[in-house]
Amino acid sequence: MSRLKLYGISKSYGAIQALSSVALSIEPGEVLGLMGDNGAGKSTLVKIIAGNFPPTSGEILIDGRPVSFYNPRDAQKEGIEVVYQDLALCDNLSAASNVFLGREATKRLGPFRYIDYGHMNRVAGGLFRQLKSETRPRDLVRRMSGGQRQAVAIARTLLSKPKIVMMDEPTAAISVRQVAEVLDVIRRLRDQGISVILISHRMPDVFGVSDRIAVLRRGELVANKRAAQSSPEEVTGLITGAIETA
């Protein structure tokens, strides 16, 4: 059974058709590379899956059950997490505090409650070990490399034991070594049975970790095939329109 299934997803803003009848699925423990030029509809599709706004028409199924999302909290309850390109981290806080941001663990002392930093450090450390990241819970985010920051953002999604993690341009503007670290983390998520949707313009990264590649052009799905059966040249042609469909 597919982890996520989209049927006929369309989204219009007045006369502008952002998405047109997109049908797509992702299996448990699968990495789906989602590609397309700027304005192709990638962000719109991700925001619909993440519950930022509903589709104009179409249906979303999680583990075979129809679901409706009215806000991101609804999507999170169904196991959907997003790592956005800006990461939304607080530079002045530690890695552990960022992992628990908005969900801080607390202890009671008489009539008072206080933040349980020890628990947060232990749990965050376990998540970093799970990702095989060198990030340490007490490290300040402002002193971290791009790859370590990605690890913190990804660890934050794991706190809720997600079924699906969507990652928006996770390897943009980081070094080659850090790119390798992030791709390794994506593989580890897949090995844990988590479905990953990787939105990226970087062809080597997408082909390096994706099991399947989907291409959007002008709001329409023009390809959905195994990565091993495609090539960067074909995907480039699909994105630009030199190749109509595949």
Automatic annotation (TrEMBL):
<comment type="similarity">
    <text>Belongs to the ABC transporter superfamily.</text>
</comment>
<dbReference type="GO" id="GO:0005524">
    <property type="term" value="F:ATP binding"/>
</dbReference>
<keyword id="KW-0547">Nucleotide-binding</keyword>
<feature type="domain" description="ABC transporter">
    <location>
        <begin position="4"/>
        <end position="243"/>
    </location>
</feature>
<keyword id="KW-0067">ATP-binding</keyword>
<dbReference type="InterPro" id="IPR017871">
    <property type="entry name" value="ABC_transporter-like_CS"/>
</dbReference>
<dbReference type="InterPro" id="IPR050107">
    <property type="entry name" value="ABC_carbohydrate_import_ATPase"/>
</dbReference>
<dbReference type="InterPro" id="IPR027417">
    <property type="entry name" value="P-loop_NTPase"/>
</dbReference>
<dbReference type="GO" id="GO:0016887">
    <property type="term" value="F:ATP hydrolysis activity"/>
</dbReference>
<dbReference type="Pfam" id="PF00005">
    <property type="entry name" value="ABC_tran"/>
</dbReference>
<protein>
    <submittedName>
        <fullName>Sugar ABC transporter ATP-binding protein</fullName>
    </submittedName>
</protein>
<dbReference type="InterPro" id="IPR003593">
    <property type="entry name" value="AAA+_ATPase"/>
</dbReference>
<dbReference type="InterPro" id="IPR003439">
    <property type="entry name" value="ABC_transporter-like_ATP-bd"/>
</dbReference>
